[in-house]
Design brief:
heterodimer, A: about 750 residues, alpha+beta, Four Helix Bundle (Hemerythrin (Met), subunit A), Heat Shock Protein 90, 4 domains, 5-stranded mixed β-sheet, 25 helices, about 50% helix, disordered C terminus, B: about 100 residues, alpha/beta, 3-stranded parallel β-sheet, phosphoprotein (chain A), ATP binding (chain A), ATP-binding (chain A), Chemotaxis protein CheA (chain A), EC 2.7.13.3 (chain A)
Chain lengths: ~750, ~100
C-alpha cells in the first residue's frame, strides 16, 4: 500500500523530470551556459534511474543507464551535443515516458512491444557511447551498457568473467555501513545491493550483524547491518558510487578499486568498527583478498599502530578517522554535487517549508468546479430576482440587505471564476516541442519565442484552444517561414522566428501567433477565391477581408501539399473552433515581413458582467467589458454613422437588425462598443444598467442566428438575449450588410 | 511453532519484534518459525529475525527458521545470511 503511494510519487516525479529534460534539450541550443543544461538533463536521467532502481524497475534502469552514459560523455566534453543527438535524446525521453505510463498501468517489466522501441534506441545511443571514444571511461561504459542490457546472455558472460578472474584482487571491494536512519527514510539497503547486481556480479557478500544490539535495546526500525561486498564489474568508479548516491549522507561507503593497494584494505580494516581479525576474515571470506594478503595488510597496520605508539591489539573502540583516508579515490566532486543537490531537494520536500508549500494547493476535480460555477450562476439569477422583489416591495431595509447580498454574490462569483483561471504558459511551453519537431520535419531552422505566459484565462478555454493554436503554429512554420535561401536573399536572418504572445484586452484574452516569414500574398488569395467562386472578380475588398478568405472551407494557396498543411482543411476548422468559443480571429500580414494571426477569446465562458439595454419591450445584454461609453442620440434619418467628437462612428440599429416593430421613442441612445481595433455604436431605446449575467447557450434551433451569442435569465424571470458584439461590429463596418455565416 | 505470514518489512518490524520476543519468553526449548507465508522481506525484517536468533542464543536456546518462502530465500541468498541462521533452506511447497 505504502509502496503504491511511493510508486505514484515516482511516476509523478519522473514525469516532471522528463519535462525538465525535454525543456533543457529544447533550449540547449540557445542557452549560452550549456553545462547547466547538460547537467539538468543528466540529473533528470540519473534521478529517474536511481528511483527506478529502488523499485526494482530493471528495464528502466537499464535504459536510463545508457542514456546517462551518453550524457556523461557530453558532460566530459567527449561528445558534442548536436541536433541529431538532441532528437535522439528527445525520443529517449519520450520512450521513458511510455515506459512510465506502462508502469502506471501496472506493467512493471519490459514487454515485447516496448522492447521494439527500446532496442533500436539503445543501439543508437550506444553508437554515441562508442563514438565518444574517451579512453578508460568510454571503455568501461560500453561494457556496462552491455552488462545491463537485461539479456541473460550478458549476465552469463559476466559470470564467466568473474569465475575466470582467479586473482581475488581483481574485484572491487565495497564496504557499507548504513546509518541508523536509512530504513526510516524509506531506503532499503537490499535495493542498493540488488541494483549493484545489475552493474556487475556480486562475487561474495558478507552481512555483518555485529552492530545488532541485544533485543531490549534494539529499535526495529533502525538499521544495524553492515555489508562487505566483493564485486566484479567493468563499471567505472563513479557509476558504482552512483548506486549509493541516495544514501551517501546516511552511510559509510568505502569502495576499493580492483588491484587496490593492500594499504587501502589495511586502512579499511582499521577504520571499521568491527574487530580487525574478524573483519579480515570476512574480507577473505567474501573473496576480496587472500589469506596471505590479509596477513600482510594486518602487519602493515600493526606497524602503523606501533608508530602511533598504540601497543598490541588495536582497540576497535578507537576510530582512527581522518588519518589515511582513501578519499583521493572515493570522492568525485561532480557526483558529490549531484548527490548534494538531490539530497537538498529531498530535505526541502521533507522539511516543514516543503510541506507548507504542498498544502497550499489542493487538487480539485474539474467537474466539482463546474458544479460550483453552475450553482453560482443560479445564485446570481436568484439574487437578481430577490433584488427586484425587494425594490418592488419598497421596504428600504430589505432593499439594503439585498444590495449587500448582491455585492457578496458578485465577490463569490469572481473568486469562483478565479479558481478556474490558469496561466497560458503551460499551453505555450508545449509548443517548444511542436516547433522543434516540425522544424526538423520541414528542414527549416526555426525558433519559437514566447511572451505573455503569465496571462490567465479560463481552464475550459485553455483546453479548447490548444488544437487551433497548434494548427496556426504549424501553418506559420510551413507556409510562413520561407526556405533558408530565400530568407538570405531577402536579407533576413537564416533562422526563422515564430512567436506566441498573449495579453488581456477589454474583457478578452488575445493570443497572437506571429512569424517573420513571407507574409500572405494578397493577389494570390484573391485570385484563388475568384477561382473557387467565393467572391466576384470585380469586388473591392480590404486587406483583412482578403486574408479572412483563407479561413473559408477548402481554401489553400499552397502550391505543394505537405503532410503538415496545405490541403485546405484546417484553417476553416480553426475558425470554427474559435467561433465556437465566442472568439474571433484576425490576420495582419505584410509581404516578405511576416504574418500575425490574432485570436481573441472571451476570458470566461460562463458568467460575465453585462450591460442591459432595451428596444421597446425587448431586452438585450451587451458584455460590459466591451462597452466604451453611452451617448444620447436623436435619429437623423437613414444614415449608418454619426459624429462622435469629430470621429466617424458607424452604428447599427437593433431595431433594424432584429426587425422590431416597436414605436420609436422620443429619445434613443448609442452604446459605443469596442472589439479589438474596431469601434462602433449600437442604437437602442433605453439603457437599463449593469447586471451580472449567466450565459445560457442557445438551443440548436438558434444556431444560425446572427448577432446573438447566448441568452440569460433576468431577475424578473424574463429571458434576455446576449448580443454578439463582434458580429454586430462586422455588420456595422461593412458597406453591404451581408456577411457569410461563420 | 510460530507462523509469520505477509510482509516481513519495516512496516511490521516493531510488531514482529514483540511477537518474536513474546514467543521466546513464553515457550521453553527450541523455537521454530515457519516463514512459508512471507510475501516480502526487507532488511528491517531480516534484522528482526537476526535479533531473535541472537536473543535465543543468549538464552541458550535454539531458533530454527523453516519453510523459507521464495521471498525469504531471495534475500538470504543476496545477503548471504543463510549461514548466520544455520538452517537449511527448504523452499516451501505452497507458493507465497
Amino acid at each position: 500500500m505504502n509502496l503504491d503511494a511511493a510508486l505514484k510519487t515516482f511516476i509523478v516525479e519522473s514525469r516532471e523530470m522528463l519535462v525538465d529534460m525535454e525543456n533543457a534539450l529544447l533550449t540547449i541550443e540557445q542557452t549560452p551556459d550549456r553545462d547547466e543544461s547538460v547537467n539538468a538533463i543528466f540529473r533528470a536521467a540519473h534521478t529517474i534511474k536511481g528511483s527506478a532502481g529502488l523499485f526494482g524497475l530493471d528495464h528502466i534502469v537499464a535504459f536510463t543507464h545508457v542514456v546517462e552514459s551518453v550524457l556523461d560523455h557530453v558532460r566530459d566534453g567527449h561528445l558534442e551535443i548536436d541536433d541529431e543527438l538532441v532528437v535522439l535524446l528527445l525520443s529517449s525521453g519520450d520512450h521513458l515516458g511510455t515506459l512510465i505510463t506502462a508502469i502506471e498501468e501496472g506493467q512493471m517489466s519490459a514487454s515485447e512491444a516496448l522492447d521494439g522501441v527500446t532496442v533500436p534506441l539503445l543501439a543508437q545511443l550506444r553508437t554515441y557511447v562508442q563514438r565518444a571514444g574517451g579512453p578508460a571511461l568510454a571503455d568501461a561504459s560500453i561494457t556496462v551498457s552491455t552488462a545491463v542490457a537485461t539479456t541473460r546472455e550478458d549476465d552469463a558472460r559476466l559470470e564467466r568473467i568473474a569465475r575466470d578472474g582467479t586473482d581475488p584482487r581483481s574485484h572491487w571491494h565495497i564496504s557499507l555501513r548504513f546509518g541508523p536512519n536509512v530504513l526510516r527514510n524509506g531506503m532499503d539497503p537490499l535495493s542498493f545491493i540488488r541494483y549493484l547486481g545489475r552493474l556487475g556480479k556480486i562475487v561474495g557478500i558478507a552481512t555483518l550483524p555485529d552492530a545488532l544490539p541485544p533485543a531490549a535495546q534494539m529499535d526495529s526500525e533502525s538499521c544495524y547491518l553492515g555489508f562487505e561486498i566483493a564485486f566484479s564489474s567493468s563499471a567505472s568508479k563513479s557509476t558504482i558510487e552512483g548506486v549509493f548516491e541516495f544514501v551517501r549522507d546516511d552511510a559509510r561507503i568505502r569502495i576499493i578499486p580492483p588491484e587496490g593497494r593492500l594499504q587501502e584494505y589495511a586502512d579499511l580494516i582499521r577504520e571499521l568498527p568491527e574487530q580487525d581479525i574478524r573483519l579480515g576474515e570476512i574480507l577473505v571470506h567474501c573473496g576480496s583478498i587472500t589469506q596471505h594478503e590479509l596477513e600482510e595488510a594486518l602487519s602493515i597496520q600493526q606497524n602503523a599502530l606501533a608508530d602511533a605508539q598504540t601497543a598490541g591489539q588495536a582497540d576497535p573502540e578507537v576510530p582512527m578517522l581522518g588519518k589515511i583516508l582513501i578519499d583521493q579515490q572515493v570522492v568525485e566532486p561532480q557526483l558529490v554535487d549531484a548527490a548534494l543537490e538531490k539530497q537538498k531537494r529531498i530535505i526541502e520536500k521533507k522539511s516543514g517549508d516543503g510541506k507548507a508549500q504542498e498544502n497550499k494547493t489542493v487538487r480539485v476535480d474539474a467537474d466539482k468546479l463546474d458544479q460550483l460555477i453552475n450553482l453560482v450562476g443560479e445564485l446570481i439569477i436568484e439574487g437578481a430576482t430577490s433584488s427586484l422583489l425587494a425594490r418592488q416591495s419598497g421596504n428600504p431595509q430589505l432593499e439594503e440587505s439585498t444590495s449587500r447580498l448582491s455585492g457578496l454574490v458578485q465577490q463569490v462569483r469572481d473568486s469562483a471564476l478565479q479558481l478556474r483561471m490558469v496561466k497560458i504558459g503551460g499551453t505555450f511551453s508545449r509548443f517548444n516541442r511542436v516547433v522543434h519537431d516540425v522544424a526538423r520535419e520541414l528542414g527549416k531552422d526555426i525558433v519559437l519565442r514566447l511572451s505573455g505566459e503569465d496571462t490567465e484565462l479560463d481552464k475550459t478555454v485553455v483546453e479548447r484552444i490548444g488544437d487551433p493554436l497548434t494548427h496556426l503554429v504549424r501553418n506559420s512554420m510551413d507556409h510562413g517561414i520561407e526556405p533558408v535561401e530565400r530568407r538570405l536573399a531577402l536579407g533576413k536572418p537564416a533562422r526563422g522566428t515564430v512567436s506566441l504572445n498573449a495579453y488581456h484586452d477589454s474583457g478578452s484574452i488575445v493570443i497572437e501567433v506571429g512569424d517573420d516569414g513571407g507574409g500572405l500574398r494578397r493577389d494570390k488569395i484573391f485570385a484563388k477565391a475568384v477561382e473557387r467562386g467565393l467572391i466576384d472578380p470585380g469586388r473591392v475588398l480590404t486587406d483583412s477581408e482578403v486574408y479572412a478568405l483563407i479561413f473559408e472551407p477548402g481554401f489553400s494557396t499552397a502550391d505543394t501539399v505537405t503532410n503538415l498543411s496545405g490541403r485546405g482543411v484546417g484553417m476553416d476548422v480553426v475558425k470554427r473552433n474559435i467561433t465556437a468559443l465566442r472568439g474571433s480571429v484576425d490576420i495582419q500580414s505584410v509581404e516578405n515581413v511576416g504574418t500575425t494571426v490574432t485570436v481573441r477569446l472571451p476570458l470566461t465562458l460562463a458568467i460575465i458582467n453585462g450591460f442591459q439595454v432595451s428596444v421597446g419591450g425587448s431586452v438585450f445584454v451587451i458584455p460590459l467589458d466591451m462597452v466604451e461609453e453611452c451617448v444620447a442620440y436623436s435619429d437623423e434619418g437613414e444614415s449608418h454613422y454619426t459624429n462622435l467628437r469629430g470621429e466617424v462612428l458607424p452604428f447599427v440599429r437593433l431595431r433594424e437588425i432584429f426587425d422590431l416593430q416597436e414605436p420609436l421613442p422620443s429619445r434613443q441612445n448609442i452604446v459605443v462598443v469596442r472589439h479589438g481595433r474596431q469601434k462602433a455604436g449600437i442604437v437602442v431605446d433605453a439603457l437599463n444598467g449593469e447586471l451580472q449575467t449567466v450565459i445560457k447557450p442557445l438551443g440548436k434551433v438558434f444556431q444560425r442566428v446572427r448577432a446573438i451569442s447566448g441568452s440569460t435569465i433576468l431577475g424578473s424571470g424574463d429571458v434576455a438575449l446576449i448580443l454578439d458584439v463582434p458580429a454586430l461590429l462586422q455588420e456595422a463596418t461593412e458597406e453591404v450588410p451581408s456577411i457569410p455565416d461563420p | 511453532m510460530l507462523h509469520i505470514a505477509g510482509e516481513l518489512t519495516i512496516y511490521r518490524a516493531a510488531e514482529l519484534k514483540e511477537l518474536l520476543l513474546q514467543a521466546l519468553g513464553q515457550s521453553s526449548g527450541d523455537l521454530e518459525i515457519d516463514l512459508s507465508g512471507v510475501t516480502e522481506m526487507d532488511v528491517a525484517g531480516l534484522q528482526v529475525l537476526m535479533m531473535a536468533k541472537q536473543a535465543a542464543q543468549a538464552l541458550q536456546r535454539n531458533l530454527h527458521l523453516m519453510n523459507h518462502s521464495p521471498s525469504v530465500v531471495e534475500v538470504f541468498e543476496i545477503l548471504n545470511v543463510t549461514a548466520f541462521f544455520g538452517d537449511p533452506l527448504v523452499i516451501s511447497e505452497s507458493p507465497a
